[in-house]
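note to self: dont lose this again. the chain is below, predicted strucutre after it. 449 aa total, dont forget to put it in the shared folder this time
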Amino acid sequence: MARLKSILICGSGVAAWFMAAGLSRALEGQGCRITVLDDGATEDSACLGRAVLSLPALRAFHGVLGLSEDQMIKAARVWPYTALNMGTYHIGIGDHGARLNTVAFHHFVTWLRQGGHKADIDTFSIPALMASAGKFTRPVNDPNSVLSGFSYGLVLDVGRYSDLLRTYAVSRGVDVAEGRLTKVDGSGAQIASVHRDQGAPLAADFYIDATGEPARLMSAVEVPFEVDLYLNANRILPALPHDTGVPMMSAGCQMLPVMGGVISDEAATNGDGRAFVQGRRAQFWVSNVVAAGHAAGVLQPFMGHELQLLHTGFTRLIGLFPDDGMSPVLAREYNRLMTQTFDRVRDFVLLPQVLRGQAEGPPELARKISQFKSRGRVVMYDEESYSESFWVSVLMGEGVLPERYDRIIDSMEPERLTQQLIKMRDIMARAVSAMPPLKAVPVTSGVPA
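---
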């Protein structure tokens, strides 16, 4: 089979230009022409708000592109964050404490609490302490240091980030086609060409649908959108980076905890809120078209998953990249992986609401909660996007205390262990206290002043 000679990306905003930038790098030197039909739509196709959080994996993606953090800062108005404030607790990007005798650290917190000690898992989390104190430093490459077990993500201005990716992609030879998509031609699930309101029709070997929630290409090949029956938030109030107000959700008259804040339905509907429907495509790749961004699925913003799903979709596409034969085997595997990834992210988004009695959860999530309640075990399924520490932060932060801890702890001398844990907590507190304030860190270190 011959390599693909052309790819057409339909859409505007982050999803389209993320895929264009990534493909221009991944397919460098392979003679594949990449074109973006950018209709200039103001509605982005990957993010619900004007600000979006990213997880650390996105910094690796930028590194592959050759974009430094200083470039990101100047062009995309980025800001680092180490933890998400959920009001009464934080979801930190990093480990809690340290493993002692191979025991996961949250078991020691359970042991302390059952022994009558006050133990807040946030006080054993460097990223949570940093967020609470408004401090920041980069992690160090020393496994013996308490500053080695955490990472950080970025808060991005969506519009500026999209512009940065567009500039990068165009500089690497990606073509831009003018006009609005008016019609999609094809036979069955195969797309032959797309029409626009100005210029000749555009044809390619492979198509990427980044047209947002309308999913113009996926709709043309009759791939249905499956509404998620568990998530019921339906409106967002957007916020700009660096503000304390982050995207917040509402559904009916419920109060839903999202990104550390809650908002009433009245406030959401009377403001500049944007309505949306949560769910995903029944398939993400059909014949010669793949969905990206909100054309693939929509979930309420929570802990950086919007760009994470986009990045995962791109990575999987590169790993299963087709030739001109369009083997259905590749599409089936892509769909299997992305369906599991999407559903596992959905479970994490849903977790706080389920624990607060505001929503029901699927059986997989119910099992994860029951296992943690019973013995502190974090069930990790295939294609999880969030590590064990993220799940522990929410479970314990929402007041789920396991009934049992790892009995290996009982082989340790209690008084010595207690003193060891107190010392660990104090070392972490002192380390964070000595850090510079976030806004005092100079731009040259990779963080905006």
